[in-house]
Amino acid sequence: MSIEIYYFSGTGNSLYVAKELCKMIPDSKLIPIVGVLDNEEIMTKGEAVGFVFPIYFTTVPVPVRKFLEKLKIDSAKYTFSVATRLGTFSVANVCVNRILRKKGINLDSQFVLNMASNSPTGLKPGKGDEDWIKKINKEKVLQLESEVQAKLNIIKKAILGREKILPKVIFNPFSAVLERIMYIITGNTKTQINFYTDSTCTGCGICEQVCLAKKIKMHEKKPVWQKEVDCYYCYACFNFCPMQSILVKNKYTKKTGRYFHPDVTAVEISGQKQKDA
Ligand SMILES: Cc1cc2nc3c(=O)[nH]c(=O)nc-3n(C[C@H](O)[C@H](O)[C@H](O)COP(=O)(O)O)c2cc1C
Questions:
Q1: Ligand 1 centre from 75 Cα, in Å?
Q2: Both 169 and 240 in a single domain?
Q3: Whose C-alpha lies nearest to ligand 1, atom 19?
Q4: Does residue 133 have a pLDDT over 50?
Q5: Partners of 112 in the β-ladder
Q6: Three-class SS state of 171
Q7: Which of 85, 91, 232 should be mutated for ligand 1, with most atoms under 8 A from CB?
Q8: pLDDT per residue over 137-184, tens digit each?
Q9: 3-state SS, residue 226
């Protein structure tokens, strides 16, 4: 009766959700997607298998979909997905379904949770709010998450009861077409984000630790984003920098907001890279 919860998380929202589910569901186990991604074969062992991940650019982050494409999921008699997001329209569920259907699997339950955004242009608490970083605190996040807590209980019950909870519109031609378009566009992982550090960088190396793609290497106490390594676009480096020294050229300044989930640490984020964690 074991339950495997595979997760991917750049700034902790999805990890928080995965951890909460693991606490609430007996005989469940957390497995970081990044830690198994390079395995030749990824084979599930759980009788129930779930996926928790953030939505990027309306769809599934590229490392998550690579993982799903590689996954051998024969052990699962029940499957579910939980996507966390800021709250835009999304085709992530369409994408997960399409990949799994090719393996003869139909997701039994799909959930979406709106949470505080890790994107500096995020709409919560206010669009373009330059003071965002000062206003957001643990209390505010928990307030935003009272809805998340309520939904987590519904998700827990659904998983324990092996219930089928699917979006009302299962097939929508517009979403199906958009999903394919986004799949192609976001598949171009060569796009470089122009990260750089200002003079306040202390060379602490937290950015290198939390970089899930292993793109950052410290050189002479400064982070270097290696061009030949694809970015996962998780913004962990940007959001976890304790000095807010990491900026994006012509886009994000020192004043734009930073966010990571208050109940998740940089060590937990970097822990996703451990094999067999
Ligand atoms: C590159 C990027 C793209 C994003 N795109 C979307 C989006 O299309 N829709 C949305 O609602 N949220 C979007 N978000 C917000 C995240 O989905 C949201 O903050 C999520 O909970 C982060 O999860 P994590 O903390 O586990 O990484 C995006 C975030 C990033 C970094």
A1: 30
A2: no
A3: 117
A4: yes
A5: 83
A6: coil
A7: 85
A8: 667 677 777 889 999 999 999 999 999 998 876 678 899 999 999 999
A9: coil
Residue 252 Cα to ligand 1 middle (Å): 16
Amino acid of residue 100: L
Give the Cβ contact number of residue 190 at 10 Å. Answer: 9
Contacts of 204 (CB under 8 A, 6+ apart): 242, 243
Q: Are residues 86 and 166 in the same domain?
A: yes
- Residues whose beta carbon lies within 6 Å of some atom of ligand 1: 9-15, 54-58, 84-88, 90, 115, 117-119, 233-235, 261
- Asked whether residue 145 falls in the same domain as residue 253, the answer is no
Which structure tokens are listed for 252? 């994000």
- 3-class secondary structure, 147: helix
Confirm if 40 and 14 have CB atoms less than 8 A apart.
no
Give the pair of three-digit tokens for residue 212: 């899930």
55: nearest Cα among 6, 106, 97, 96: 96
CA dist 263 to 37, 104, 139, 145, 173, Å?
25, 37, 11, 12, 39
**pLDDT given for residue 125 in this prediction:** 46
Q: 158 and 128, same structural domain? A: yes
- Substitution site in 9, 20, 57 for ligand 1 pocket (most atoms within 8 Å of beta carbon): 57
Range of the domain at 174: 3-186
Average pLDDT on 251-275 reads 90
Q: What is the pLDDT of residue 221?
A: 95
Residue 132 has pLDDT above 60, yes or no: no
- Whether residues 199 and 161 share a domain: the answer is no
Rounded percentage of the chain residues whose pLDDT exceeds 70: 91
